[in-house]
């Protein structure tokens, strides 16, 4: 018996001849937020569906709140909040009716009016689901996922199609869930969303885990990526700083790339000083999660 909210071990998902998930392992500790990142078709939704109990894995083991998501489905469902990528509700019912219906399934639901207000849905309370915009439907789907006070929430691209205000409200709600000890497994294409919300990020590529770690670990491991130097224009070090690469991006603005650390940065400054240049500005930039993500997923993303 595990105390983790989600434990996935060597999970495989196949659709006929297509293997969407090739043996993925991950853990969501209780009260933590894990974000799955990956290109379209990387296998994120397939993995999520296995955890939600909507699809049986073709290999491996999954435990959700210590239970089997397929065999213990009925016991598990009231403890989970699930936000699907789209649909899943009654198109002819109004937003208010739908949310109150889901609230009625829960033993201790959240206050429906509070959720309608927080997610900007109050004026759509009497609007039928099918008449809501994509972003409004997303907000209602999030409210449905949260209304039952779940212990664990699965969010598949929760802010896709939302406007900036709704996205920020969603982020605040997820942060509040975490503060209340709720566990969250979410997928996203938004790197800033993952960086802001996630305790741990799992980057998937072609059904495999390409990298995993906290956002800080993933970006720190990548090191300093770029040194920007401002000095007199027209200074050309040639290969004297090799293997570092120096490019004058605009007159007097130099970009230095390569294996940059304290020693090599000192070497670069030494060269500028040696040719009598006056360095007026020096800036290092660490890789962002976006840089790491692109480096891991770009070239080999599509087979
Ligand atoms: N029902 C299905 N039948 C056949 N193939 C499927 C099915 N669902 C998904 N796939 C395939 O499995 C692979 C993984 O799809 P999945 O939806 O899990 O990816 P994803 O990472 O969630 O993508 P996205 O970011 O576009 O939502 C893709 O190649 C997809 O075409």
Automatic annotation (TrEMBL):
It is found in: Cell membrane. SUPFAM superfamilies: P-loop containing nucleoside triphosphate hydrolases. Pfam families: ABC_tran. InterPro entries: AAA+_ATPase (IPR003593), ABC_transporter-like_ATP-bd (IPR003439), ABC_transporter-like_CS (IPR017871), ABC_transporter_ATP-binding (IPR050763), P-loop_NTPase (IPR027417). It is a peripheral membrane protein. Its main location: membrane. CDD domains: ABC_DR_subfamily_A. It comes from the Bacteria. GO terms for molecular function: ATP binding; ATP hydrolysis activity. PROSITE patterns: ABC_TRANSPORTER_1, ABC_TRANSPORTER_2. Keywords: Antibiotic resistance, ATP-binding, Cell membrane, Membrane, Nucleotide-binding, Translocase, Transport. GO terms for biological process: response to antibiotic. Residues 6-231 form the ABC transporter domain. One of its GO terms (cellular component) is plasma membrane. This is ABC-2 type transport system ATP-binding protein. It comes from Paractinoplanes atraurantiacus. The lineage of its organism: Bacteria, Bacillati, Actinomycetota, Actinomycetes, Micromonosporales.
